[in-house]
Design brief:
- Helix 4 crosses helix 6.
- The N terminus is likely disordered.
- The protein is elongated.
- It contains six helices and twelve strands.
- By secondary structure, the protein is of the alpha+beta class.
- Strands 5-6-7-9-8 form a five-stranded mixed β-barrel. It has a three-stranded antiparallel beta sheet with strand order 2-3-4, with helices on one face. The chain has a three-stranded antiparallel beta sheet with strand order 10-12-11.
């Protein structure tokens, strides 16, 4: 399941260097907190396009042309998964795609999309787990694929070249903090004005990340003493210089 080892577009042209030809094992929090650059998503320098994850179905909504699931994996907020189907009344019953029940563990494979300002998975495959050990296996897949990616300079360079944000993404950050917390801290640190960095500026740089998520991260960093407010409760500077 590591990058370059789980090709999903084998029929694509060999000269299409930008084509994503792998399915990246991820956690849901990795999708939610990934950095967005235009319509592409990155976890550190790893481009996330086609992804796969394991989670629990929290809710189901059936529509004639779509099945909407809310799926969670206890790594962060849940995510909405949309599976497009043809379940109209004129379709034979044996040809309709049946929805999966709530409290079912599933493996979802699909594309990350930003729909109505919200990160969503458009799934091309959703299957129930047949063995609960698949949960553990998936976590091992996530760890293994990320280690494989980091050990491959060619993949890393492609990811770095695609990231064009105006703050330092290569910084190691504060030990013990999550990826999103370090991203917000770096954004605030990169601001050189006397009044500090505003929440609106941070939200603008973290395009696609929900506003409430950004505010929760800021509250945490402030409560832990990593940042402090300046001219108002919406402007911040870092405490370590």
């Amino acid at each position: 399941m590591s990058p370059g080892m789980s090709a999903s577009n084998k029929d694509s042209k060999s000269d299409d260097k930008d084509k994503v030809d792998y399915i990246m094992p991820v956690t849901i929090s990795e999708i939610i907190y990934a950095h967005q650059n235009v319509d592409e998503f990155f976890s550190d320098n790893i481009k996330l396009s086609q992804v796969t994850f394991v989670g629990l179905v929290l809710s189901v909504k059936e529509l004639p042309v779509r099945l909407d699931y809310e799926v969670g994996d206890c790594t962060g907020p849940s995510i909405e998964v949309k599976q497009f189907v043809d379940n109209r009344e004129d379709v034979p019953e044996n040809e309709k795609i049946k929805s999966l029940a709530e409290k079912t563990y599933v493996r979802v494979s699909g594309h990350i999309r930003l729909l109505e300002g919200k990160r969503t998975i458009v799934a091309f495959k959703i299957v129930p787990l047949t063995d609960i050990n698949e949960l553990t296996v998936h976590i091992l897949e996530v760890i293994h694929s990320h280690l494989m990616y980091k050990s491959n300079p060619n993949l890393q360079n492609k990811g770095k070249a695609a990231l064009t944000n105006d703050y330092d993404t290569s910084s190691v950050g504060i030990p013990g903090l999550g990826h999103m917390h370090n991203q917000v801290h770096r954004i605030i640190k990169s601001c050189t004005t006397e009044e500090g960095c505003s929440i609106d500026e941070i939200i603008k740089k973290l395009r696609g990340v929900p506003e409430n998520t950004v505010k929760d991260v800021i509250d945490f960093l402030s409560g832990e003493g990593h940042i402090y407010s300046t001219i108002s409760e919406s402007h911040f500077k870092i405490t370590d210089g």
